[in-house]
Amino acid sequence: MGANPTAIPARLDRGEPADVVIVLREAMDKLVAKGQVEKESVVDLGIGHIAMAVKAGAPKPDIRTVDSFRNALLAAKSAAYTDSAGGIYLQNVLFKRLGIEKQMTAKSKMISGLPVGPGLARGEYEIAFQQLSELKSVQGIEIVGLIPDVVQKATTFSAGIATRAANPQDGRELIHLLASPAAFPAIESSGLEPAQLHAEASIK
What we know:
Blueprint: H1 8-13, E1 20-24, H2 25-33, E2 43-48, E3 50-55, H3 66-75, E4 79-82, H4 85-97, H5 101-107, E5 108-111, H6 117-121, E6 127-131, H7 132-135, E7 141-146, E8 155-161, H8 168-178, H9 184-189, E9 193-194, H10 195-203
Parallel strand pairs: 4-5, 4-6
Antiparallel strand pairs: 1-8, 2-8, 2-9, 3-6, 3-7
């Protein structure tokens, strides 16, 4: 959802064909407003959370509490995060909230258009942040854990039918499958929480 040319909004702007679009909810809402995705077709699929990772074999700092998490950030020599919602939240909100904006700005890098995992595995930075679901499959890194609940930012991933879809009915069937209980195990194993289960838990 960033401003780079490979981001889904930019690809749709160029007229790249798509039947189903799966993006963060806030990006989806913008695509609906621009008339690129059918509003009535949008369905929430999964809820993601920000995780912290280190290079494989590196010490894993304690991030179980806000204080220990803050200390881990200050102790790290370098950090990286993507230009997606989680990274923007870290850079523009969380670091300020923790009172360490100046320290983190001096040693942090926002990665545009690429995942942070491969660079972390190469040792380009000491710690990195991204959605847990986007870190789990990366070789050469180890996930420290989710950042503390008190400062966590949950992110909703949604699917919708592109207004220029060549196969809208097939797209609807796919979205129906992805939002059904049959898909819950795959969603959970990927590091996300099924959106329907999250909604039911919130109601309770």
